[in-house]
Amino acid sequence: MPIAAPATFTVADNTTNPDITPVATADICSKAIGAIDLTVSGAPAPYTYSWSNMAVSEDLNSLNSGNYSVTVTAGNGCTADTTLNVPNNSSTFSLSGTATPLTSCIGDNGAINLTVTPAGAYLPVVERRCDRGYFKPRTRHLYRIGNGTGNCTATASFTVNDATTLPPPPNR
Question: Structural domains in the chain?
Answer without folding.
Answer: 19-89 (2.60.40.1080), 94-160 (no CATH)
